[in-house]
Amino acid sequence: MKVLVIGGDGYCGWATALYLSNKGYQVGILDSLVRRYWDLQLKAETLTPIAPIEKRLECWKGETGKSIELFLGDITNYDFLLGALKKFEPDTIVHFGEQRSAPFSMIDREHAVMTQVNNVVGTLNILYAMKEHFPDCHLVKLGTMGEYGTPNIDIEEGYITIEHNGRTDTLPYPKQPGSYYHLSKVHDTHNIQFACKIWGLRATDLNQGIVYGVLTDETKMHETLINRLDYDGVFGTALNRFCIQAAVGHPLTVYGTGGQTRGFLDIRDTVRCMELAIANPAEPGQLRVFNQFTEMFSIEELALKVKDAATAMGLKVEINNLDNPRFELEEHYFNAKNTKLIDLGLEPHNLSDSLIDSLLNFAIRYKDRVDESQILPKVSWHRK
Ligand code: NAD
Ligand code: USQ
Known about the structure:
By secondary structure, the protein is of the alpha/beta class. It has one domain (2-374): NAD(P)-binding Rossmann-like Domain (Rossmann fold), CATH 3.40.50. It is built from twelve helices and 14 strands. Strands 3-2-1-4-5-8-12 form a seven-stranded parallel β-sheet, with helices on both faces. A three-stranded mixed β-sheet has the order 9-11-13. A hairpin with a 2-residue loop joins strand 6 (159-164) and strand 7. Helix 4 packs across helix 6 and helix 6 (109-133) packs parallel to helix 7 (180-199). It is globular. Sulfoquinovose-uridine-C1,5'-diphosphate (USQ) is lined by residues 100-102, 144-146, 209-210, 237-238, 241, 253-255, 258, 260, 262-263, 299, 326, 328.
């Protein structure tokens, strides 16, 4: 089976492309490398020294004998996208290729517009290309748990059955996203749903939680295959950031009380979920939604776990409750369903002390690359 991984130079995409290639899928990577450019603009580097994409692929071929075809370009350019799809002829398109940082989207008007144009137009171009030329192709699209926000009722997987004035219907679950980035994902969901309905396309929307970890069986084969690991205040995410902060002796940056609860998963589960979604495609005309996370934690709980593990290693760690730069509930109900991927065969890697230890040790290995001025959050959701 031929799988085109859009965004295959990024954190989730790189790990997924290698995993699928190792499993025997014929894999192509399409990426504009814009994320590397944003890092340069922000003067923020990943903790890990990531090799240029061509070197990464050469190394993969050397290690495994497997080739991954590369398409360099931007999916908001329809002619480029169509050219790449016609050359590769995928059975499945895995779409990770978006601007994925909530703080980045909240920097100012330009970044909000850029995020929404990049994400919404890119996805819409994929839908049109599928309709015109690849109507049987399966789209596996990365959404986010943040599309739902934090409602005071259980979160279902994409749809909810509602009884209203004596009548009943199953409807898309209400969306209350918390940034212009998260909003772009909601707009994507609506566009995909509409395209599946009117053109009979097939798609799976994976509402992924926050991913942590760095090593997968494939990315650890060789230093040149190493994945990115972001720690800066714009692209770094909660648990990964805390481990790197602990490694350099920076107080852990909990925003507000830390009562914010989210779904989380290990990057080794991200790649397995992709395989499961690809191997069990949606039906024509169907937009399936899976909630892709394995466990729920509050931010405070995670900070305490990292503090305990780091202290046991002899590191000195404090937790700092900063003024929350975001507009979000800090104490709330959160109970989301996540059975559909488990039903397909996912066996979660739950967050263990040994995983936190290994992430801490990994961070210590690269700690000389940390620029501490990049750690504190600089982007605010609030009106000045
Ligand atoms: P990333 O920034 O590491 O990778 C995204 C890749 O997409 C980059 O290599 C970038 O160059 C590429 N890209 C962006 N716009 C593009 C365009 N217009 N054309 C071609 N390539 C483009 O992000 P990630 O952490 O790997 O996230 C991948 C996807 O998973 C995103 O859609 C994100 O919203 C979703 N997701 C990520 C997480 C997480 O914790 N990292 C959690 C939930 C969902
Ligand atoms: N937070 C802290 N301290 C930090 C960083 C974050 O307290 O140093 C808090 C935030 O205020 C928020 C929560 O932790 O309440 C999560 O923030 P995050 O930066 O770890 O993750 P988020 O902005 O939600 O975005 C990340 C990815 C995004 C993905 C999303 C999944 O960047 O691509 O869509 O996780 S989810 O959160 O389920 O929507």
